[in-house]
Design a protein that fits this description.
The radius of gyration is 20 Å and the shape is globular. It has 314 residues and is mostly helical. The model has no long low-confidence stretch (mean pLDDT 88). The chain is built from 13 helices and 2 strands; from the N terminus they run ααααααββααααααα. It is 57% helix and 1% strand. The protein starts with 17 loop residues before the first helix and ends in a 10-residue tail after the last helix. It has one domain: Ammonium transporter fold, CATH 1.10.3430. Helix 3 crosses helix 4 and helix 8 packs parallel to helix 11. It has a two-stranded antiparallel sheet with strand order 1-2.
Amino acid sequence: MSKYIVSSSPHLRDHVSTRRIMQDVCIAMLPACIVGVLLYGYRAAVILALAVAAAVLSEKFYCKAAHVKDTTGDFSAVVTGMLLAMNLPSTVPYWMPVVGSVIAILLCKMIFGGIGKNFINPALAARAILALSWANVMNTFAEPAFGNLAGVDAVASVTPVSGVASGSFTLTQLMLGNIPGTIGETCKIALLVGAAYLLYRQVISWHIPVAFIGSFAACYLIATGFDVHATLYQVLSGGLILGAFFMATDYSSSPATAKGKIIFGLGCGLLLFWFRYGKKTPAEWCSFAILLMNVASPLIERVTGAKSFGEVKK
């Protein structure tokens, strides 16, 4: 007589761990971080180090205070710290990445139960709070000086998004990152290298990035009378590439189904187009577009999720 083993789901298992996934994300972000340090000097490296250290220490402190298992070993706090730092200008005071990481970990992640239970991207939420609280500081960017590790002077420089009308930068400058901006968003080549690594390692899928960038580009192309140059300029400006591949794809705050991911990405792209088009303010709207879709993610998941076997439509 055959023996059957009865166990609870999930029945399909993989050897992939949270720690390995988070380590892959850290590796993918390294090219953009290295280029950021080369472009903006030693301050960029200090900000990255402070953000990561504050994130890890905040999570360790919370786990100890709440008498729960220490989860700092899964590298998710490191990812949050790196993402936050990549979204900050190199000109911010050194206390800002520390405050941002504390907000991201304690208020946007651990208070909801830790990794996998936060409904918004912690790094993005912290970045938005910092931008709304200290707008002048967050909109002061340094002119890039490649290889000048001693750092560059802080200037209130125009961003690529606000400089599109005057054609302040070339597409080559946007690709290489030779523009004012945050530490990790300017060099699109480095970001695309990291994105290719994530896709190769199957840490992320193509659904959200393609739907996000594609819907935004399609809307802008139509709105500008099929001006390809202006559309490419907008795609390569600001935090779109960083957001589409590294932040909108966060497991906890985005849908799990393929259909849900496409709807999520389309929503991000449409919101970003609505925020950006026709506006002359230098504010980076990509963060807010993703955060709004984070809030809508549970509803998208509910609508697109698989129905239980035998369930009858009511």
